[in-house]
Each structure stands twice: as structure tokens, then as C-alpha cells.
Specification:
This protein has 340 residues and is α+β, with helices and mostly antiparallel strands. It has helices at 9-18, 37-71, 88-99, 140-143, 173-184, 202-217, 233-242, 266-269; strands at residues 23-27, 30-34, 72-77, 83-85, 104-108, 114-118, 125-128, 131-139, 164-167, 195-200, 224-230, 260-263, 282-289, 293-295, 315-317, 323-326, 332-339.
Length: 340
């Protein structure tokens, strides 16, 4: 019998236990069975059943892995500065651990090197022999959608750039609108805005818009709000470039859920806005699809289901609805970076 590579030594040992009057040898990739004719026939039938079951399971696993790759593709930045896809198997392995909210996943990569991806870093890092490589998660369905238009006032719209921070003119209506929201929500904190930048990131913007369209398609109110998010200057720059990462939650507490935190009041976010210098202090004003929200707690990794429904809430919040927690990276877009 040939082509039995899916069988293991344990499988053959179990076969011998079931048919003790036969003898098995393995030579030149061929399995040889010796014994009485009836016993041999029954043993062959048993082996064929095992092989079929194993191959069916293997084939089913391959189909599942390929389905994941058609929806989600993990990529790493190569030495030639272009994005490369992980193999179908590694893509499935990485995605399954990411969805489980693991902090990292370790594996042997296509070059047979020990590797690890850290999900809880922002941006996420692909580590090979102490070499740090950028890695990203792509929603393939979103890449195929060309119907979403980039805002016409973006400076980078015709440059082909994938990321740009545009300084706003202090006398422009856009600048005044953002500064008024920031100042009106300070609640007696005396600070002065030094600069406002518009975040022009086509990839993140399209992801956000498609997530918003999902609400509309099911006649659901996306409840889009403009909320503040404070952190270190370095972290906020990474968010503007790579997006929000809920795997990084917990740094400043998770009282209302294990996701990304946003505040109605800039006075709340200012507590987390830290810079190496006074001029480095900043926070993000983000578009956030709050949707249906409920009061969260520190144990929530995802929002609970709505009452008498299998449909979950879209976000969690504090009892006063001044803090909101999001659990999908595409649920929020870093629209402005405010320096003060």
C-alpha cells in the first residue's frame, strides 16, 4: 500500500492491536501487510478508512485556511520595502491567535526561522532573531472597494502618499471647528493650542468608511461621534500611521471593557497626553462609530448581546456616557492631531 504519509506510528500500533495476527513492514515508502487473507482484507479496509478520514480532515482544514486568506491577509514589510503575504497556513495561524486576543503568536516562518508577532504592541511587530519588522492585517474585501472617495480637501489626494499630516491654517473654518470642540470640553483646564494637523491616511479612512456602511446596510444608526483619545506623542503618531489597536488596551486601565478608550471631554484625555517636551503634548480627535452602547466592566473582551437578542452591542461606556470603548480597529478613525 502506497501514499500513506498521513498515517502515524500510533495509527499502525492501534492497527496491530486490532489485528494481532498480521505483520507490518515499511520499505521504500510502501507499507507491506503479511498474514491470513481475511485479516489482511479487514486491515486494509481499516487503513483505507483511517486515510480517508485524515485526508478529509486535512482537506477541510486547507479549505478553512484558504477562506481566511480570502477575507483577511497578514503581511510583513520586506527588506525591499514592499508588503509580502504570509503563507496560507501561517496566515490562518496568525489570524486565529489574533481573534483569540492572544498577546503574541510564535511560529517557524517560510524561511525556517523562529519568529514571533506581538499583537499587543502599537504598531504590531514581527520579530525574527531580534530583527523588528513591521506587520499589518488587511481586510481583503475592503481593498476591492473603489467606491469610497477620499475627501477632496486632502493635500495628499493626488500625491499617491499612504500617509500625511497636514497643518491646518489657524484662520480656516476647519481649524476653528476643531479648536472650539477641544476648548469647550476642557472644563477649566487652561491650555493653548499650538498646532492642529489633519490626518490623511487613505487606507485607514477607507476601512472606517466601509465599517460605517455596514451599519447603514442593515438600517442601523452608526451614531458617529467625535471623541478624544490621549496618549504619549509617540503612540499617537503611530496610531495616525497604523491605526488604533485594541490589542494594546490595558495600559491606562480597562474599567469599562478591554478595548480602545475615547472621551467626550478633552479634559479627560489630557491626563494621558504626555510628551518629552511641552510642545510634544497632543491628543487625537477621532471619528468613532459608537452605535448601540451599554455600560461595560473590566472583564469584557467584547460587548455583550443586547437584551433578548443574539446581536451584540457595538460599544461599551461608563454610566454617564462620557467614556466609550470600541472593540473593532476599523470602528474609529484618527481625524485630527491637536498639539497644545
Amino acid at each position: 500500500m502506497k501514499n500513506l504519509t498521513s498515517l502515524t506510528v500510533v495509527d499502525l500500533q492501534k492497527l496491530l492491536e486490532k489485528f494481532p495476527d498480521i505483520e507490518i513492514t515499511y520499505e521504500n515508502k510502501t507499507l507491506n501487510l503479511y498474514g491470513f487473507k481475511n485479516s489482511i482484507s479487514c486491515a486494509i479496509a481499516e487503513l483505507a478508512l483511517q486515510v480517508n478520514n485524515k485526508m478529509a480532515g486535512h482537506f477541510s482544514s486547507m479549505i478553512d485556511q484558504m477562506k481566511i486568506s480570502t477575507d483577511i491577509q497578514w503581511q510583513y514589510l520586506s527588506d525591499s520595502n514592499d508588503w509580502k503575504n504570509f503563507s496560507v497556513y501561517l496566515n490562518s495561524l496568525i489570524e486565529s491567535n489574533y481573534l483569540k486576543k492572544e498577546s503574541k503568536v510564535s511560529f517557524t516562518n517560510e524561511s525556517n526561522n523562529a519568529a514571533c508577532i506581538f499583537f499587543n504592541m502599537n504598531p504590531m511587530i514581527y520579530l525574527i532573531d531580534n530583527k523588528r519588522i513591521n506587520v499589518r492585517r488587511i481586510d481583503m474585501a475592503q481593498l476591492d472597494d473603489n467606491s469610497i472617495k477620499i475627501p477632496s480637501n486632502w493635500i495628499s489626494i493626488n500625491s499617491g502618499s499612504d500617509f500625511y499630516l497636514a497643518d491646518l491654517n489657524p484662520s480656516s473654518p476647519e481649524y476653528l471647528s476643531v479648536s472650539n470642540q477641544f476648548i469647550s470640553k476642557l472644563q477649566n483646564n487652561s491650555v493653548r493650542i499650538s498646532k492642529i494637523q489633519r490626518v490623511e491616511n487613505p487606507y485607514l479612512f477607507k476601512q472606517y468608511q466601509i465599517f460605517k456602511e455596514k451599519f447603514i446596510k442593515v438600517n442601523k444608526n452608526p451614531n458617529e461621534m467625535k471623541l478624544f483619545h490621549g496618549s504619549t506623542h509617540e503612540s499617537l503618531l503611530k496610531i495616525c500611521r497604523f491605526g488604533f489597536n485594541r490589542s494594546y488596551c490595558g495600559k491606562n486601565g480597562v474599567a469599562f471593557g478591554q478595548g480602545v478608550y475615547f472621551a467626550v471631554n478633552s479634559s479627560y484625555s489630557i491626563k494621558y497626553s504626555v510628551g518629552h517636551a511641552i510642545s510634544d503634548r497632543c491628543m487625537i480627535l477621532a471619528k468613532v462609530l459608537v452605535g448601540e452602547s451599554c455600560v461595560g466592566n473590566s472583564q469584557m473582551k467584547v460587548p455583550p448581546n443586547q437584551p433578548n437578542s443574539e446581536i451584540p452591542f457595538d460599544s461599551t461606556c461608563d454610566p454617564g456616557k462620557s467614556i466609550f470603548v470600541c472593540y473593532h480597529d476599523n470602528q474609529c478613525y484618527p481625524e485630527y492631531l491637536i498639539y497644545f
